[in-house]
């Protein structure tokens, strides 16, 4: 079994993280911005974040998740094989775990429009797949 090339994992994580952050910003700044304002005015969402540096925390979180998925891909190559198929599987599983359970409960119990948890789930799921596929594309053995 070949050792994991941690430099390439880190490179893939950075590239995947950039794509995931851009995808997340597209969803939250472009697609949901007007809905956030309406939900805030209706009292369904806070007008100010509880954590003042939330956007920074969110970006760091996406990069950490991208790193974990890149490492999982590099680890899984030995048993699942290298390439797009393995990256897709890892990304789909990671995205499901990151996005589906919490957003299912949010759609069920929170008073916000169900479009929010739908897009939040897609943020995590599609972002995880994209980050993993990009990390896989950049990954090379030692």
What does this structure look like?
With 142 residues, the chain is an all-alpha fold. The protein has one domain (6-138). The protein is built from five helices and no strands. Helix 1 runs antiparallel to helix 5. The radius of gyration is 17 Å and the shape is elongated. The protein starts with 5 loop residues before the first helix and ends with a helix. 30% of the residues are buried.
How are the SSEs placed, and which strands pair?
Elements: H1 6-31, H2 33-41, H3 54-80, H4 84-109, H5 115-138
Helix pairs in contact: 1-3, 1-5, 3-4, 3-5, 4-5
Describe the structure in brief.
This protein has five helices and no strands. The chain is an all-alpha fold. The longest helix is centred in the middle third of the chain and has 27 residues, at 54-80.
Provide a count of the helices.
Answer: 5
Helix content: over 70%
Q: Report the sheet-strand fraction.
A: under 5%
Mean pLDDT score: 97
Radius of gyration over all CA atoms, rounded: 17 Å
N-to-C SSE string, H for helix and E for strand: HHHHH
Low-confidence stretches: none
Q: Quaternary arrangement of the chains shown?
A: single chain
Span between termini: 12 Å
Q: What's the structural domain tally?
A: 1
Q: Strand pairing plus helix content: what structural class?
A: mainly alpha
Envelope shape: elongated
Largest sheet composition: none
- Counting DSSP E segments of at least 2 residues, the number of strands comes to 0
